[in-house]
Automatic annotation (TrEMBL):
Keywords: Membrane, Transmembrane, Transmembrane helix. The chain crosses the membrane at residues 6-23, 35-54, 60-80, 154-175, 181-201, 221-239, 245-263, 270-289. It is a multi-pass membrane protein. It is found in: Membrane. Its main location: membrane. Pfam families: EamA. Residues 1-133 form the EamA domain. It comes from Prochlorococcus marinus str. MIT 9302. PANTHER family: EAMA DOMAIN-CONTAINING PROTEIN (PTHR32322:SF2), INNER MEMBRANE TRANSPORTER (PTHR32322). The keyword Electron transport does not apply. This is EamA domain-containing protein. Belongs to the EamA transporter family. It comes from the Bacteria. GO terms for cellular component: membrane.
Length: 290
């Protein structure tokens, strides 16, 4: 039950944070937004290192650093870049692949077996999400100039975002299976890995755009960091610790449904078909959980 509640909490936190980050992707580079949010989140969670002891095996720390590089450093950058270039709807449409990819990854790499009922539930969730995202009015889209000049290439960013996020979660799950490290500490180590990678990629040239924001924008940005990065990743780590990655990721993928609460802001109409397939999605989740 803890893992289930953590998954829905992470989805809510991430949805609200992305709602704020979208407005910044039109002004600043995705890599700059990702780096600044990770640095601030890392500083907020710095007390987590109190729980790091000399008995902690270095191989677990190394795996978590890699998890942070792939899942947060690369994954979040690709996600923000996707929001910037193709908009919310197309980005989230590709994100519907994540439960299926996570299920296959769990089966292949850590031998997590699912019941036929769970597989049916995951397929229902993925199909329902895809239909929900393509019903009613479209979200505001991203860079139209980019869309005109690119066809299949525009889906590179969201696809790699999904792939990196799932791989990052898979590495975290592997550590939790083999160790007693806390979600709090693993969150901080993953953030550290992402920061080291992004700073190196930027050649230590950090754009501190935060100081250029208005006071209200600064408050909203800090809130988005705490909810989307600190709380979001912490809850995500609890999910990876307590649930198989396939089931955990299916629950985490409910972000598009939660985004319906922001439908007015996104200029999107909630139709009867959306309501129906939302109920159908929760039926799929019920099959997965029970």
């Amino acid at each position: 039950m803890i893992g289930i509640l953590a998954a829905f909490g992470a989805s809510i936190s991430w949805t609200y944070a992305c709602f704020i980050w979208r407005s910044q992707t039109q002004k600043y580079k995705s890599i700059d937004i990702n780096l600044i949010k990770n640095i601030i989140a890392f500083l907020i969670f710095i007390p987590a290192f109190i729980n790091l002891s000399s008995a902690t095996e270095l191989n677990y720390i190394f795996i978590l650093l890699i998890s942070g590089i792939i899942g947060i450093g690369l994954g979040d950058t690709f996600y923000l870049k996707s929001l910037q270039t193709i908009g919310t709807r197309k980005t989230l449409s590709v994100e519907t692949l994540s439960p299926l990819i996570a299920s296959l990854a769990g089966k292949i790499f850590i031998n997590e077996n699912l019941t036929p009922k769970s597989w049916i539930g995951i397929i229902i969730v993925s199909i329902s999400l895809l239909i929900i995202l393509n019903k009613g009015n479209e979200f505001k889209e991203g860079n139209s100039h980019f869309l005109e000049k690119n066809n299949y290439e525009i889906y590179t960013f969201p696809f790699f975002s999904v792939l990196c996020a799932v791989l990052g979660g898979l590495f975290s799950r592997m550590v939790f299976i083999q160790s007693n490290l806390s979600p709090f500490l693993t969150t901080e180590i993953r953030l550290l890995g992402a920061i080291i990678f992004l700073i190196t990629l930027k050649r230590f040239k950090i754009n501190f755009f935060f100081k250029n924001l208005e006071r209200n924008q600064q408050k909203r940005f800090l809130l988005s960091i705490f909810l989307g990065t600190n709380l979001g990743i912490l809850l995500q780590q609890i999910v990876f610790k307590t649930l198989p990655i396939a089931i955990g990721w299916a629950l985490l993928s409910t972000t598009p449904v939660i985004s319906l609460f922001f439908a007015k802001n996104e200029e999107r109409e909630i139709t009867k078909k959306i309501i129906f397939f939302t109920c159908f999605l929760f039926f799929g989740l019920t099959l997965i959980i029970l």
